[in-house]
Specification:
heterodimer, A: mainly alpha, ABC transporter involved in vitamin B12 uptake, BtuC, 2 domains, two-stranded antiparallel sheet, 16 helices, globular, disordered C terminus, B: mainly alpha, two-stranded antiparallel ribbon, 11 helices, 2 strands, 75% helix
């Protein structure tokens, strides 16, 4: 039976989903494995999903997704903690604000492309950081809005680690399925057409600009949801949450996971979360380690972990063509991706 | 009124510094289509190098010189070691330089700590001098920064418009294949421009470190503002960098003085206003 046959794929998906649901009930030290690894990977994965969605459908690589994360998070923190609102309207308003900011940023940023777009969105995210520091009557400046107690929704007590994990998992899965669904809709197909040949699509009567703004706003919507999940996880929102290091975290999760692969978002987020948590045991300079891993991935594995299997076979077939043998050795010497590569379902050969 | 003028002069000082940093970034981008997102890191590292040298030798000039030269070399190593092989792929270059900025920030934190350092202002410039027409006193050193920025700006303009090297660079900005085809080793020009841009960042670090502090996070601040400066001014244009630096520094400084909560929001507003009217920036040539 071929590895890529639908039956195998659906079985693998079912097993994976079951494993993810059972996960919080079987792991030891739930405070660490469920919260620090599980929930963190999920909300970071949602952020990476937002970035990857945009890149996959429009070809635009954004460094600004945390701006919408922060917009949603700060709105909720401000309304709940400083204004005494209840969570439900605050969350709704937070997400709306994230989407509106996304539409505003999108309406000027998507006229740029490539590296210029990257710079613009990076600038937006950094301005968000400084805005969070400066507008202290809304954000409490340096110290941030702290002590946010996760609410109880529909009988689900989000203070409990397991419940929060399962809620985050449900939302992450729904967002992922939504992104996969959009791939096949006329909207998704039009976006891919715009990415590959904007002139032709324009000639066919599509409003290229409007489509891209909508795609950008949708990515901002995903990022805002990430902000909601993160505020339950962090129980606070501080300026450093939207700082450059976090921006780079999202980028690393997306690029390490494979920047054109939607499941790669979560693989990358999980890998990064593991590296960050465990490297603390043997080095205090885990940011350096993260940076080095990232540079190596960008230089030698442009398709990330999700593309590792395909890249392996690619090397095997024409190793001498594009890459020097030395790089091939480096690939084979690397064990990190071996297990994760099996999670990848994109080996369509 | 005094406060208004002082804020204006503070803005001008900051504009000078932003211009020094951004001009290197914009030069490199203009010629090579490379966005070096580790540029703020080069600024901060330059400041730390100067701080170390000045502490050891007590000579500001020596510190600034060493910072400029050493950071130039660091930029060269960065370009030749990491970026040369992927130069054609501008996205990957940007990503690698982000990684480098993360590594750089963490390493500098390890060596220089989280405490803010400050380079002592050179002896003869420590006093405040009266500023003609405005009727206020202002630190001589800060006025010197403005002077240096203007001098570097004029120097760059002369270099680009009046020398053979500048002619090659300008031709390279327009069509580097053609320059290459006419027998000029464009690679060597790339190396020189990258070195010059990095050295400018290092020099700015030394100069800025004596007016403002050197601490973790300063690298990102200068990266952000030099990005905004060249987005507003137009990428690849040195004149645009000067105009952008003045606009951005003035807006952010007046906002900090009179509406401190909204300084970043106003800079954001400036950026999107410019982009709405001129997507390529005020003096930018073509939409990128």
């Amino acid at each position: 039976m071929r590895l890529s046959s639908p039956a195998v794929r659906w079985t693998a998906r079912g097993v994976l989903l079951a494993a993810l649901i059972i996960y919080p009930f079987v792991v030891p030290q739930p405070g660490f494995w469920v919260v620090n690894i599980g929930i963190k990977s999920l909300w970071l994965g949602v952020m990476a999903l937002s970035l990857i969605f945009l890149y996959k459908f429009t070809g635009l690589l954004s460094l600004g997704q945390l701006a919408f994360w922060g917009a949603a998070g700060y709105t909720i923190g401000y309304l709940v903690q400083l204004q005494g609102w209840s969570f439900a309207p605050a969350i709704a308003l937070g997400i709306v604000f994230g989407i509106l900011l996304g539409a505003l940023v999108g309406s000027f940023a998507i006229r740029a492309s490539g590296v210029y777009f990257l710079m613009l969105t990076l600038a937006v995210a950094q301005l968000m950081y400084f805005a969070a520091l400066q507008a202290s009557q809304f954000t409490r400046g340096h110290q941030g809005i702290t002590g946010i107690r996760p609410p109880t929704f529909l009988g689900l007590d989000l203070v409990s680690a397991r419940t929060q994990y399962l809620v985050a998992l449900t939302i992450a899965v729904l967002l992922y399925v939504l992104c996969r669904y959009i791939e096949g809709t006329p909207f998704g197909l039009a976006l891919r057409g715009l990415r590959d040949s904007p002139e032709r699509m324009r000639a066919l009567g599509y409003n290229v600009y409007a489509y891209k703004v909508v795609a950008f706003s949708f990515a901002a919507f995903i990022a805002s949801i990430g902000g909601v999940l993160a505020i339950f996880y962090n129980r606070q929102i501080v300026p450093d949450g939207v700082g450059l290091i976090r921006t780079i975290d999202v980028l690393i999760a997306a690029v390490v996971g494979g920047v054109i692969s939607l499941p790669g978002a979560f693989i990358g987020a999980f890998a990064l979360t593991m590296v960050q948590n465990f490297s603390q045991f043997f080095t205090s300079r885990y940011l350096t380690l993260t940076g080095v891993v990232f540079v190596v991935v960008v230089l030698f594995f442009p398709q990330g972990i999700a593309g590792l299997w395909r890249q392996f076979t690619g090397y095997y077939l024409w190793a001498h063509d594009r890459w020097r043998p030395a790089t091939r050795d480096a690939v084979e010497g690397k064990g990190v991706g071996a297990g994760a590569a099996q999670l990848s379902e994109r080996s369509t050969d | 009124m005094r406060q208004f003028f002082t804020v204006g002069l503070n803005g001008l000082t900051l504009a000078g510094l932003y211009f020094l940093v951004a001009s290197g970034l914009t030069l490199i981008f203009g010629l090579m289509r490379i966005v070096n997102l580790a540029h703020g890191t080069l600024y901060l590292l330059g400041g730390y190098v100067a701080w170390t040298v000045i502490r050891a030798t007590d000579s500001f000039m020596l510190g600034a010189l060493v910072a400029a030269l050493l950071i130039g070399v660091v930029g060269l190593v960065l370009h030749q070691g990491l970026l040369r092989t992927i130069e054609r792929d501008d996205m990957r270059v940007a990503l690698v330089t982000i990684g480098v900025s993360l590594i750089g920030a963490d390493q500098m934190l390890a060596y220089f700590g989280g405490v803010a350092h400050s380079i002592p202002t050179p002896e003869p410039l420590r006093t405040a001098v009266p500023v003609p027409l405005l009727g206020i006193n202002y630190p001589a050193y800060r006025l010197t920064i403005v002077g240096i920025a203007v001098a570097v700006g004029i120097g760059l303009w002369l270099l680009l418009s009046r020398t053979r090297f500048g002619m090659i660079v300008r031709a390279g900005v327009d069509d580097r294949e053609m320059v290459s085809a006419s027998g000029i080793n464009i690679r060597l020009v790339f190396v020189a421009v990258f070195l010059l841009g990095a050295a400018l960042a290092g020099l700015s670090g030394a100069i800025g470190g004596a007016a403002f502090s050197l601490a973790p996070g300063v690298d990102m601040q200068f990266l952000l503002f030099s990005l905004v400066v060249i987005i507003v001014g137009g990428m690849g244009s040195v004149g645009g960098a000067a105009l952008g630096a003045v606009l951005v520094a003035m807006v952010s400084n007046y906002a900090l003085a009179y509406a401190s909560s909204f300084a970043a929001v106003l800079v954001f507003g400036l950026m999107i206003t410019v982009l709405a009217v001129r997507p390529q920036g005020i003096l930018g040539k073509v939409a990128v």
